[in-house]
Amino acid sequence: SIPGRRVGDQGGGPVRTVNTGTVATPNSVPQPEPRVVGQVPCETPALVILWLLGALALLVRFAAGMIRLRGIVDRAAPVEVAEWIGTPDADGVRPALRMSDEVDMPFAAGLFRPTIVLPASSSDWSSQRRAAVLQHELAHLSRGDLLMNALSHLARALYWFNPLAWYAAHRVRIESERACDDAVLRRGARASDYAEHLLSIAGNGASGVPTAALAMARPSAFEGRLLAILEPDLERGSLSRLKVVAATIVFLAVILPLGAASPTAKAAAMTPAPVEAILVQDP
Known about the structure:
Oligomer: single chain
Number of strands: 8
Strand order of the largest sheet: 3-4-6-5-7
Helix content: 40-55%
Shape: globular
C-alpha cells in the first residue's frame, strides 16, 4: 500500500486515500547536485596567479624603461643652437630640446615635461633635416602620442595572454609614426627628401632608445612607412575635430550596447520540476 492521508466528506461518503509524495518514474533522469552561485573552479587560482605574473613582468619592464628614459633625458645637454631653438612650436606645444651621446636616434619623451632628445650626430645635420625631424617629433607631442604609447603598454600588460593586444600595441606605434610623417609632408617637405632623411637616421639604428619612447625610425615596419611616404596619391589630410567626435559617438553607440548585453540565465528554466502524483483509492 502507498502511505497517504484519509480524506472524507461531511456526509459520511466514501473515504479516499490521497498520496502527495513524489513518485519516481522508470524514465526519470537523476538531477545533478545544485551548484552554489559564485563557486570558483579549483583551476581558477592557478590561472589568476599566471596572469598576475605575466602582467607584473611587463609592467616592471615598462617601469624600468621609463626610469632609464628619464635618466637619459636628465643627462642630456640642453641645446643652445639658434637653428634648433628658433623652430616654431606645434599647437602651442614648446618642448625642451636636448642632445645626448647615449642614443643614435631622435625621440620624443615626457608626459608632463615634453622633451625632444637629439643624437650627438645631429650637430652635423643640414637645416632641412633638422626642420623635418623637429616637425615629426612636434607632431607626436601635439597629437598626444606619448600618452597613447603609455596606454598601449599598459593594455598589453593587462591582456598579455591575448595576441590581439600585442598586435594592437604594435599597430598603434606604426600608425602614430605614419600620421607624423603625413604631418611633415603637409608642411611642404618633399617626399623623396624626407624618405632620404629617414633612411639616413634609421641606418644608425635605435640603440639606447627604450621602447617607452617614440623613436623616429625604428626598424619595425620601416619599409611600409617608406612606401606610404613615396605614394603620391595617398590621402594625407588630418581628421577634423568634428570627424573625431562623430567617430567617438558611433564607437560608443556600437560598443556600449554590446558590452552591456549578457547571456540570459536559463538553467532554472531548463531544470525539470519534481513529479507529483496524487493517487485516489476507493474502498
